[in-house]
Amino acid sequence: MRLTPLTLLLIAIGSHALAAPPAGTTAKLAILETTDLHANVLGYDYFKLAPDPSIGLERTATLIAEARREFPNTLLLDNGDTIQGNALSDFQAIEQPVGCGQPLAIHKAMRALAYDGGTIGNHEFNYGLPYLQQVSGTSAARCAGPGYPLVLANVVDAKTGLPVFAPYHLIDKRVRAVGPDGQPRETTLRIGIIGFTPPAVLTWDRRWLEGRVRTLGIKEAAERYVPEMRAKGADLVVVLSHAGLETGPYSPSQENPNLSLAQVPGIDALLMGHLHLSFPDAGSQYAAFNQPGVDKVAGRVRGVPAVMASMWGKALGVIGLQLRSDGKRWLVQSEQTRVEVRSTQRPDKSYVAADPRFADLIAAEHAATIGFVKTPIGSTDFRMASTLADVGDVSAIEIVNLAQTEYVRDYVRANLPQYAALPVLSMSAPFKSGNAGPRDYTDVKPGPLAINHAADLYLYPNLLYAVKVNGDGLKAWLEKSAERFNRIDPSQRAPQELVNANTPGFNFDMPTTPALQYEIDLTQPAGQRVRALQYQGKDVTAAMEFIVATNSYRASGGGNFPGLDGSKTIFASPDASRDVLIAYIKRVKQLHHAEHGAQRSWRFSRVQTAGPVLFRAAPDAQTLATAAGIGNVRLIEASDAQGYAVFALDLGQ
């Protein structure tokens, strides 16, 4: 039979659309989100070599099972930053790379949970594009992947402009519904999922991606593909945006553009991530959650149901979409739709039970990782902790700076004689600063050191870079770091918080050499806080030049530090910062507090305050303060609602 154009059109329409159920049919669909798992399958801290019940997909799995029993229909999705982030992921990517036919440990766990789909976060690119294509199952070799469709719409081939991964995927989901007559019935929903990652991934992982891919603005990519998904019969469009919310106007390079993304017509639900926060969160002080268009109580962004499920498997995001058919299409009943973040920690501070399947499922990978991180590299006679880095303890910072300084100085002397006369500084930050809870601090006890301790001191798989800046550039760098703190009003009698919740600890870069000295004046606005900046006892001027050892993330623009956009880089090392640290410890063998953990470059300017200045830390921070010689902190509260100890900082001392 000859097919007429009309027949072909009808066939095409039929292949793209599903018959709508009768008007008045209702259904409830729970969209379940995990995000920023960072390869945490088990509740185990490979840095401390100890169980940690606050993390791990094995406990999120219990919440997933509960939700599947509660809701008649569920869709389980992952929002990226899945395959990188702990010693297990580094072991499988770097030390003993997985073979083509071998799924990652995190993917084995996700297969067991039968995920419906997922997207790709920025950290997925940390190990390089070939590795990502292998473990995502998208390489030409068709290697083992995650077992569910991955979507990413705003990363395209640099030459062809075509998406590197499938931009979206349509899922035909059989669901249980209730007909207009009140009787149960089954129907099929066509659900479109589309994924996005921060455009700055091209900057953060420039060494892997430059010349190979380019990124599109998230909003622009959505405006292109959402109508296409609808045209192919998507009843619902769920956005997996590995990004969060921020203030300020939209631009195609915006890192967290979900406020603008939510305005794209045709989006029914928005899954967020990247910020390692929970949304909705009625008590959040995060600035971007407290702006027009954002409902941090009901979980709405521009009226679109939206959720962000914390990180590391600590929580499950749930959007309970209430749907109603008008006979032609499904409509979301916003007033009956509920959004929540369900924590693995119960109100009584206990944790839900772990799914017992997971320990056996990845037993071999778990044991191999533990064996690897136990490799000895040296010893220390002092405790190295980031717990009090915000108030001046450099015990976990200086060792990183010493290793980076030595490496860059030696390289410059041997290979870059034109820079040999310039002083070499180093910047490092407290990568673990309590964001994930009162246990989320680097803490290496005195005694033998192994690879796991180095991984605790240096959390990320960055490369070591060196940049050249002048005195003004150095000051601007330190001013940006000082945004870690809130402005303090000395006359205020009410308590004031020291730490700015909008600036993560990993952006608090600090030098730790006695040659460079400065103060941070907390009474001044951001950008005007660095005072008395001196090098070798002389005021730092614009005419001075410095080489600064830092990481590839910062040198390439990570954190939006002034002037650091890749153009200042004079040396891009092939060695990871953590490997540089390990090599340094192996050479030194024995670390001593006076030499390797006590040299401060900065202090707060002294000022008397009418009321207390408060900060939160691990419960044993007072002991650390004594060891570090920090005498201007005192315990106010042994444990707040989240388990942090609350301290007062006396800025007058």
Description:
The protein has 653 residues and is of the alpha/beta class. 24% of the residues lie in helices and 26% in strands. The protein has 18 helices and 36 strands. Strands 8, 9, 11, 12, 13, 14, 15 and 16 form an 8-stranded mixed β-sheet that branches. Strands 1, 4, 5, 6, 17, 18 and 19 form a 7-stranded mixed β-sheet that branches. A hairpin with a 4-residue loop joins β17 and β18. α3 crosses α11 and α12 crosses α16 (577-588). It is globular and about 85 Å long. The termini are far apart.
Describe the biggest sheet? 8 strands, mixed
Q: How much helix is in the residues?
A: 10-25%
Low-pLDDT runs: 1-15
Number of domains: 2
What is the level 1 CATH name of the largest domain?
Answer: Alpha Beta
N→C terminal distance: 92 Å
